[in-house]
Structures are given as structure tokens and as C-alpha cells.
């Protein structure tokens, strides 16, 4: 069984702790399952401004925080109101500030609010109080591989290497034709097949296969997110985007980062080989190969641990509760959102 701990901003119950107070120490989330454990491993965590989605490996989605339905707050993780029968198999989830996306190979379901086309349901549609399918997507003879989102735009990667995007596009983050609101999926031109896409607040990063190192940054060059990018990204293993920066994990455990750093959002240089990363709006988490969970960046809400323990020149070592010590437990997933942090554990066999 999987145990999930969370810490950080919690004004809408988005941490799933059954209350709405910020916390700076990893705390056990509450779910509708016995003992608040999860029935399977955490596959993905997606966080919006005030809500959180969990995708489990058993194809279940759980939700906490602002329900975007008559200001209802859900402070524990429960299943969202999905259609019947629920979509399956779920491949990916994502969240803008106030909308949620659930992707299967053949459909994307959306819920929430967005005035810049974040729902992709067509011109003038800014709200969906229940999950609705994006019409006429994906194109014939293609399937959806993954979906990514940031503050107000989203992109989906297809099995043929094409990318489609929607939402805010005024800065060119959805291609060379700027638009304040793209209300249905639009093809984003890229000269190479894309295998992974990341969304920042005003930019999109498209990645080719790790062996090629090809990449393309679209959108604003704020914080030199385009002009300071490395020449190639060969050997990447995973990558994440904050609102204004990119952190990339390479196969050798090293980290590459560039972009905004006014709150130490970029990766520290002295934390050793890293196994996993998670990148939030202005902070990041890492699991090192020697078993430490580290956090750095903007941590005012406790999402980087206790501020008294933080050293702004280095990453903060997150203090794990004794009952989840890393001798007996394995960290199986990390998550980072809008000043929210997540650590999933499973007991070692």
C-alpha cells in the first residue's frame, strides 16, 4: 500500500489533510480508503492554484481542494465526479490554475474554469461543472500520450510526435501566431518528433528523444528562458517547468537548470546524484541517490519545509516522520505544485 504525505499551501484544502491550514512538515493525507492509504502506487500528481489531482496506477483519479463548483471545498482526497463509465485507461493528468484535464489515449476530459480557452471546449465556454470531453480531438489515427499544463495553457503530445495546445497564447507559447485565447486544440509546429512537453507560465518546452537532445522553447524569453537554454539536452531522464524556469534530470543523476532564480528556484550545484525530481510553480523537490528528500526555491507557505531549518544558499533537507524512515520505506513519487509538495512512500519488501 502507498502512503502519501503533503506540506505547503492549504487554504482550500488542496493538501488533502482534512483542514485548510498551511503546514511545513510532511503530513499524512486523508483519503476515502481505510487508514488513509492508497490502493495502488502514485503514477502522477497534478496541482492547480487551489486543487490537486492524483493519478494512481490502478487507473483511479482522486481530487482535493477547490472543486470549482459553487465554491465547494473538498479537503480530503476523494474521487471526482467522472462520467459513467469512467474514462479508461487514463494516461495522464494536468491542471491549470482552475481547470483539470484527464487524458486517455482517445479523449481528454476537462473540468473547472478558464477565461483564456483552458477548457478547449470552444469559443465562449469558460466553465464546466462536470467533466466534459474535448470535442473532435485527437485527430484520426492518432492517440494521446501525455498532457501538460501551467497557469493558463495546456499542451498534449500525440503518438506521432505532434503537439496540440490551447489556452493562453499571447506570448507565443502555442506557436508563432500569438492569441490571447485559443479555445480548441491547435497544432503547434515543431521540426522534430516530440516525446515530452512542459508548460511554464508564459512558455512551452518541447523535448525530442533523450538520445537526440533536440528541444524547442516557445513563448516569452522572460528570465532568459530561451536565450540561456543549453545548446542540447542529450541524456535527459526527466524534466519539469516552474512558472519561470526549467529543471532537467539527466541519466547520470546530474541536474541542469535555467531561468528565474530570484528565490533560488534553480537547482543547487552541490546536492549529489539525483534519482527523482518534481518541479512546482516556484520551488522543486529532489530525491537523491543516497536517500534524502531535498527542497529549494520559494517556500513561504512551508512547501520547502520549515523556514527555520532552511538555508537559502542550499537545498533544505526535508525531515521525514520516523514512521516512514527511508531504511524501511521507499520514496516512490514526488510532487510539487503551487506552493504544495508531496512525497509518496511504500514499505520495502
From TrEMBL:
Repeat among keywords: yes
Keyword annotations from UniProtKB, A to Z: Guanine-nucleotide releasing factor, Repeat
PROSITE patterns: RCC1_2, RCC1_3
Gene3D superfamilies cross-referenced by the UniProt entry: Regulator of chromosome condensation 1/beta-lactamase-inhibitor protein II
UniProt entry tagged with the keyword Repeat: yes
Region (Disordered): 1-20
Any Pfam family: WD40_RLD
Domain RCC1-like per the UniProt entry, residue ranges: 4-341
RCC repeat spans: 2-58, 161-210, 253-290, 291-347
InterPro entries named among the record's database cross-references: Ran_GTPase-activating, RCC1-like_dom, RCC1/BLIP-II, Reg_chr_condens
Domain of life of the organism encoding this protein: Eukaryota
Protein name, per record: Alpha tubulin suppressor
